[in-house]
Amino acid sequence: MNRTPERIRDEWLVFRAQDGDRDAITELVARWQPRLLAHAARLTGRHDAAADVVQDSWIAMVKGLRRLDDPACFPRWAYQVVTRRSTDWVRQTVRQRRLNERVAIDAPTHEEPNNVNDDVDALRTAIRKLPAEHRTLLAMHYLDGLSLAEIAEALGIPRGTVKSRLHAIRGELKGLLELEPDSPLAGERGRG
């Protein structure tokens, strides 16, 4: 595990929070709220739902913080809690959507992304085409900076599976970028 000054500070805050220090809890929330919101939004696909999921997750985490044996495990534990709550929200939403479909209520439509003008837009467009679980893995690793082991523990899958999925996802992204007609990478396969 990478013990950066940020991680060490988090561990210290967890120790203080476990002793009932409200200021430490407030600081933990301030430090982790943006990352956990982004994670929940990736899993649920909705920012409003992510806010509800993370709020419920914080309630559970504050109540369960004293049972966390190793403060160094806080990041993966927090992601586990948010992942479980997000999964519950998605499951409930799917059930509701099926019920609505039975009653003939139209599901909302999703708009396609705008024109692809540069490399960043091309990459964002390609990422949007990936399944939600692939986007989640990419974001946890590249945006949130979690190690393979932390992702594995947070999602309840083996470390090797995380590594192989990330490798496959990068290949899938490359393929999507090469196939996009407006992508700067289109047609590079044939170049020597």
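That was protein one. Protein two is written in the same sequence-then-structure order:
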Amino acid sequence: MKTKAEMTNAFNLATIILAIMIITFHSHSNADQEVPNDSIFQASIFEALVEGVYEGDLTYGELKKHGDFGLGTFNRLDGEMVAVDGVFYKIDSEGKVSIVEDSMKSPFAIVTFFDSNEKLVPDRELNCEELKKYIEDALPIKNIFYAIKVSGEFEYLKTRSVHAQEKPYPPISEAVKEQSEFDLNNLKGTIAGYWLPLYIEGMSQSGFHFHFISADKKSGGHVLECKTKNIVIEIDHIRDFQIDLPDTEEFNNSDLEKEPGKGK
């Protein structure tokens, strides 16, 4: 019979192997390599953004090679990004929507080639917390990744966008104190989002993360509150997660060796 220490070592080794199988890290030099369609591709790690690393070296032109659906932000934390059906939009701190230019860069973004595995049609109106519970109750497995598209009519949404930051960059908890918030009423549009398991915390944001773009492409942003009317929910089941770490002085010198989410 194996000793407790041997069993612990075996468990740790199995955990490491599982992590390697699920999550593949890429350096910026090979970020343009082909990515499987059933894969999440992420620029940088969320904990770096939390710590105020607001400059990345991956362009949106490069990012588009890895997905047609997702969310993120821009260098200097200059606004919110949402991508739906292959079109990438920027919502700035004034609420203005524009098409993202390929030359723009991101310190954090998460994209995939959206391919729905299941469709849900709620028979009632839902606020954001009810919507999240409705979706989470429908997820068949809690140990994989999900891209989520919510399309249709919304009675109300509260969204936000953040102002461009100036050096020395503050942690994100300080930056969002000056965020712009927008109240949107009775409109059609699409929420692009993800649900990620707790074990991804630090590398990405666990739980739900939603961004919105209106059907007329005149409003959107990071979703804070919502109330649905008639919606369709599509869910993409994903088992591959790839991360492109930036090769920048800011990222390389950032202190990320702390418990995720604790901040500075």
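Residues 4-22 form the longest helix (19 residues). Keep this in mind for the problem set.
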